TrEMBL record:
It comes from the Bacteria. This is Nuclear transport factor 2 family protein. Residues 33-160 form the SnoaL-like domain. The keyword Signal applies. CDD domains: NTF2_like (cd00531).
Length: 184
């Protein structure tokens, strides 16, 4: 009888599944913080386009962490000063009262993943420029891959990689050179 009881207990131990405890559900405050974080990150990704279009270089560079990085192929700019200089080199100084009536960026398909004080994001971008007859013309499409960090209590871009898709970087360079030649 004792042997049967021991065998039964051993069999029960072998055949009883071990149930893992589910991770605790985030409380209300944690869920609200996550929503606030995602909204703040989405706002940064959209403000990137708005500040670029407005030639608001200070606003643009303020979106980056102190040691933030912007990359496109072999071109890498690290730190706010280097990123600011890149904008001046690209667009020139912004005249007082500047209003951009020549181009605008559209940022779409935002996907944000948050892990504590770090996050990653992916998005798509489209640049619309004034065509030869004044009509809007899509001229550049690509994607962004971002790493973000909470710095001094605010979300900032730690690293942004810009991947042009259409046209290719080579084709885009040719387009810009031709457009600049027409404007002279």
């Amino acid at each position: 009888m004792m042997r049967a009881l021991i065998a039964g207990v051993a069999l029960l131990a072998v055949t009883t599944p071990v149930v893992a405890k589910a991770p605790p559900k985030p409380d209300f405050a944690q869920r609200v913080q996550r929503v606030e974080d995602e909204l703040a990150i989405r706002r940064i990704l959209l403000d990137y386009s708005f500040t670029q279009d407005a030639h608001d270089y200070e606003g643009y560079t303020a979106l980056f962490a102190k040691e933030g990085e912007w990359a496109n192929g072999p071109t890498v700019k690290k730190g706010r000063d280097a990123i600011h200089k890149m904008l001046i080199d690209l667009y020139g100084a912004t005249p007082a009262g500047y209003v951009n009536n020549e181009s605008y960026h559209i940022t779409t398909n935002l996907q944000v993943d948050i892990d504590g004080d770090r996050a990653t994001a992916r998005s798509r971008h489209l640049l619309i420029m004034r065509g030869p007859s004044g009509q809007p013309e899509p001229v550049l499409a690509g994607r962004y891959e971002d790493q973000l960090i909470r710095e001094d209590g605010a979300w900032k871009i730690l690293k942004r990689i810009d991947y042009p898709i259409m046209p290719t970087p080579e084709e885009w360079g040719k387009y810009i050179r031709e457009r600049r030649a027409q404007q002279k």
